[in-house]
Input
Amino acid sequence: MKLSSGHIIACLAGLSCVTAAPSDNGIAVTAQYDNLANTIVPTPLPSYRGLSYNDWSYASQQALAVGVLASQSFPNRLVAGTMATQSIAPDTPTYQAFALLGFYWGCGVRSAQPAASQPLACTLAVTGFAASTGKQVATTTLTYTPPSPVSVGTVPMDHAILPSSFNQKLGKVTFSVSNQPATAFLVDDLSYKLFAS
Output
């Protein structure tokens, strides 16, 4: 492929390369986590596709699970740790900022195998901090309410559509879910843009 001068090629976690002209538009990414090895035991995930993860693991949904929170894209999804707050940030020095566009999420009863946890109502606070100043520039509160009762199948995740204030150059985004550490906070199909400068 012939590229004009000034183009940027970004290869993320061994996947296909994304090509973008240098601008403030960023590189669009949707992290599905499904190219990671299947595991029912939470496996720490320090970084993935241009982001660094603080207090996050990933785990796989089992194919025949009934009455559990379903992965948005089968089988893997993020599992938050037991700290009061989890965070994501650009994977420096390659990237200096990111914009968070949305994600799928839900909560379940924390267990040794969060892929098999029963859905649980919860509240999630999401806060964004500017890459340039470190100051808080975006915040929203989301509520997850699973259907009840669940007798067959799996329970879908909610789609978090964030305010436009998250669509700017951020240096960190934090997530804080109610009733930690008893609640397992699960995320899938994280959508964002990466900025090299």
Summary: The two ends are 25 Å apart (CA to CA).
